[in-house]
Amino acid sequence: MRVEIKIDDTATEPRAIIVTDRITEEINEMVRSLSRTAPQPILGMRKETVRILEPESILRIYGANGKVFAATEEGEYQLRLRLYELEERLRRDSFVRISNSEIINLKKALHFDLNLAGTICVSFADHSVSYVSRRYVSKIKEVLGL
Question: Strand order of the sheet with strand 129-132?
Fold first, then answer.
């Protein structure tokens, strides 16, 4: 992909033009990325405190018992957002859905065990593990370049 930047003294706001022969998922992702305004914070609640969670500190986000939780190296926080809302807010080059109820931070995964029949085991720095559901195995392999 070729990127060009043009300086125009008469421009009142930045403008992006994408020239392509067809619409692909990469093009759609660029449009979503360029259309986003300021990143919205992810608020995590634990006991009586609310904390702004930096995406880089999140190991995984998962749903359990009708609630959504973010696991960090400091502990777990309950979130008010739904998984699909978080999936839209988080960077697609770092976060990937591995099941209907879980999103992981690829940059926090230590290794992927492909030995299991039909699934993948993901290990994290805090010694926790997650499993990629069979439905998402091909997507994970594509993301990892396997």
Answer: 109-113, 120-124, 129-132
**Encoded tokens for 111:** 């290794």
Within-domain flag for 82: yes
At 92, which amino acid appears?
R
Strand segments, DSSP code E, in the chain are 42-46, 49-53, 58-64, 67-72, 75-79, 95-99, 102-105, 109-113, 120-124, 129-132
What is the span of the domain harbouring residue 122? 42-144
**Which two three-digit tokens encode residue 101?**
């109820």
pLDDT digits (tens, 9 = 90+) for 22-43: 988 888 888 877 776 556 788 9
What strand order describes the sheet that includes 42-46?
Answer: 49-53, 42-46, 75-79, 67-72, 58-64, 102-105, 95-99
Let me know if residue 37 belongs to a domain.
no
